[in-house]
Amino acid sequence: MAALAWLLVLHFHLLSFISPSAGTATTTTLQTSQSLADLALKKVLADSAQVFGEYSPSSSPNKTTTTTTTTTTSRARWMRQIPDAALLTQLSIPGTHDSATWNFSQATRDSLAHNTDPANGVFDAVFYRCQAASPAAALDAGIRFFDLRYALDPTGTALAFYHKAALMSQRATVEDVLFGFYAWLEAHPSEVVILSFQYEGGRPNEPSGYFATAQGLLAGVLTGSRYVLQQRGELGTLGQARGRIVVFQRFDLPTEQQQLLLPGLHFSPSLWPDNGKDFVLTYNTARNLSAYIEDYYEPNDLGGANLSAVAIIDAKVAAVEAHLNKAAGGGDDLYITFTSAEYNLNDPHVTPEIMALGNGTELTPQGGVNQQLVGVLKGLRGKRLGIVVLDFWDQPGDVDLVGAVLGL
Ligand SMILES: *[C@@H]1O[C@H](CO)[C@@H](O)[C@H](O)[C@H]1NC(C)=O
Ligand SMILES: *[C@@H]1O[C@H](CO)[C@@H](O)[C@H](O)[C@H]1NC(C)=O
Ligand SMILES: *[C@@H]1O[C@H](CO)[C@@H](O)[C@H](O)[C@H]1NC(C)=O
Ligand SMILES: *[C@@H]1O[C@H](CO)[C@@H](O)[C@H](O)[C@H]1NC(C)=O
Ligand SMILES: *[C@@H]1O[C@H](CO)[C@@H](O)[C@H](O)[C@H]1NC(C)=O
After folding, report:
1. What is the 3-state secondary structure (H, E, C) of 61-96?
2. Could you read off the pLDDT of 144-161 as tens digits, one per residue?
3. What spacing in Å lies between the alpha carbon of 62 and ligand 2's midpoint?
4. Which protein residue has the closest C-alpha to ligand 4 atom 11?
5. Which chain regions cross the lipid bilayer (predicted)?
6. Is there a contact between 291 and 343 (Cβ–Cβ < 8 Å)?
7. Whose CA is closest to atom 10 on ligand 3?
């Protein structure tokens, strides 16, 4: 992988430096190298496809990808119109929760069964799947925050994507998928992408030592890339971050000193309360910079099993609405609102998909969170919302959820 990574860096380097007026001999050398680098990029993009989605830099859309908007603003470049001096905390940023799960159909889950140990409690695909469209498609549609859950792959040699115990792909490594983001950022240098890396630990059969190996690999990848903004402990301005990835660290290294060497913002899992409707995490103690977060993913304070789906969906919508109202209230603090949820105390379960979209029957006459969220967002149009993390961001197809987050 190291040699391949080097070739890809060469690829991007050549993209910026090849000059048509270069001498013949030089041009030949460069073109030979470039085609090898092109091949390397193609290989990595093919390897990453099951998690990143199909992506080809040459056919990268340069137009509005939503059918419902009349705006001339390109969703693939919506940050271009915003001044460099804008603070990232002052933007409304659409995001996706469990972004790697988009192709975790039952067919994908069955094809990975030999690697996804059923003893670890792996359920049907529908329990894990939170998206229907890929990160590559999401980027073009304006999504700029991605929730990525990683751990070592079953061979213990590379970083792979998981949702709880379920492996998402045995081919797409974290490093491969990062090259997908790099390639996209090369084509969209005005944009900033926030990647949240959460260690998906606690799988019962995970060998000891996997955690340390995974952390070492991830630290190497994040600190070694010129596409990753190396600034630590603060978000800064859009101008400082354009063309780069901002990292959220949802994992703990063994010491605070090691953690401080990593780029981005640290949100310690030990401080992240489970199922919180409204909590504060300080990511920079020296400067007292904090994030206000809603991550109420299982409305289990309603009490009990087999509650009405409407009551569960309404409780989630209420928590989201309250948090978005708070975000809209001003200040420079970072706000993160997760609109994603499930309800596993019911039998049958209210899956992430039913939660987001309803189940299409009189059981959920108002649809799911997504249908109701559009109204909430329209009521807050023009206000700063912070990061809004969606499930099934592109559905239902007749509403423009991303546009509503962007205030369009
Ligand atoms: C999505 O999953 C299906 C079923 O496993 C697979 O055939 C297809 O290649 C996957 N798509 C991508 C882009 O990897
Ligand atoms: C994409 O669109 C922008 C402005 O709309 C233009 O400046 C740029 O050249 C376009 N790029 C491609 C590859 O078409
Ligand atoms: C830190 O900021 C919060 C508001 O975000 C404020 O309530 C608190 O008093 C501040 N603490 C210090 C030590 O300044
Ligand atoms: C919930 O419903 C399922 C299926 O009808 C049933 O088996 C289960 O006992 C119910 N649970 C409770 C606590 O009522
Ligand atoms: C909707 O949920 C109800 C109650 O769980 C179930 O009986 C029905 O089959 C579901 N309909 C669909 C289309 O999933």
Report:
1. CCCCCCCCCCCCCCHHHHHHHCCCCCEHHHCEEEEE
2. 999 999 999 988 999 999
3. 6
4. 305
5. none
6. no
7. 288
Question: How many CB atoms neighbour CB 254 within 10 A?
Answer: 10
Burial of residue 73, with CB atoms counted within 10 A of its CB: 0-12 exposed, 13-18 middle, 19 or more buried: middle
pLDDT digits (tens, 9 = 90+) for 95-132: 999 999 999 999 999 998 877 666 656 789 999 999 99
d(CA 119, CA 376): 42
Token pair belonging to 120: 């670890």
Ligand 1 lined by 74 (C-beta under 6 Å): no
**What pLDDT digit, counting tens, does each position of 270-279 carry?**
999 999 999 9
- Residue 315 half-sphere exposure toward CB, CA atoms < 13 A: 20
pTM of the entire structure? 0.90
In angstroms, rounded to a whole number, what is the distance separating the alpha carbons of residues 320 and 120? 32
Tokens linked to 18: 């090849």
- Please state whether beta strands 279-284 and 265-266 pair in parallel, antiparallel, or not at all (unpaired): unpaired
| In contact, 69 and 78? CB cutoff 8 Å | no
β-strand partners of 284: 289
pLDDT class of 3 with cuts at 50, 70, 90: low
Q: What is the mean pLDDT of the chain?
A: 89
Q: What is the pLDDT of residue 24?
A: 47
Q: How high is the pLDDT of residue 310?
A: 97
The tokens describing 243, both together, are 């063309």
CA separation (Å) from 104 to 110, 113, 127, 194, 262? 10, 12, 10, 23, 31
Neighbouring-strand partners of residue 222: none
Rg (CA), the chain: 21
Among 300, 302, 306, 363, which residue has the most ligand 4 atoms within 8 Å of its CB, making it the best to mutate? 306
Joined together, the tokens standing for residue 349 give: 């379960």
Whether residue 290 has its Cβ less than 6 Å from ligand 3 = yes
List the structure tokens of 46.
């093919």
Quote the CA–CA distance of 47 and 64 in Å, as a whole number: 27
Question: Distance between CA 141 and CA 125 in Å, rounded?
Answer: 25
